[in-house]
Amino acid sequence: MSIDTDLRDSMLKATPNLRAFAISLTNNVDRADDLVQETLMRAIANIDRFQPGTNMQAWLFTILRNLFHSEYRKRRREVEDADGKYAAALSVQPDQMPHLDFEDLQKALARLPHDQREALLLVGASGFSYEQAAEICGCAVGTIKSRVNRARNRLAELMHFEDMDEDIGPDRVTLSVMHAVA
């Protein structure tokens, strides 16, 4: 791609000011030089968008500024991890078990009597107070509390829960693998 000599000269003339601006933005000479180089490369690649007779330096400063902000947004989301320690410490629980647990919960909920299921879903899942649930169901607060308690006990029985702390969440094998990785 050939570029008009006057355009090339005006780009070269603006380069020291671009570099000074880039240094003031980045506080790093090497990053500033890279930013100026990328600016000039983008300007040359898009020279057909430059309108002759307008201010070349202002056009280049706009490109540099936009590049800097794009790079800044990208770097904000990145974590510097040159030695790989951060990445090695990351672990994710497998998602198969929660999916299967949810299916088991749905099946167990379907086996509850309607009044118990309704009370449990109003209080446990929807976040209503016992008083609000009682008003919705048209019964006494004590009745709702009793239904919720019986529903919870029956769910634990249907799902074969013995110790809630150990039966809910990742199993021991998954936990040991995740802690060994970390």
UniProtKB/TrEMBL annotation:
Residue ranges constituting the RNA polymerase sigma factor 70 region 4 type domain according to the UniProt record: 103-155
PROSITE patterns xref list: SIGMA70_ECF
Pfam families with a match to the protein in the record: Sigma70_r2, Sigma70_r4_2
GO BP: any one term: DNA-templated transcription initiation
Annotated SUPFAM superfamilies: Sigma2 domain of RNA polymerase sigma factors (SSF88946), Sigma3 and sigma4 domains of RNA polymerase sigma factors (SSF88659)
Alphabetized UniProt keyword annotations: DNA-binding, Sigma factor, Transcription, Transcription regulation
Domain RNA polymerase sigma-70 region, first and last residues per copy: 16-77
Gene3D superfamilies hit by this protein: 1.10.1740.10, Winged helix-like DNA-binding domain superfamily/Winged helix DNA-binding domain
GO molecular function, one term: DNA binding
Family under the similarity heading: Belongs to the sigma-70 factor family. ECF subfamily.
The protein's name in its UniProt record: RNA polymerase sigma factor
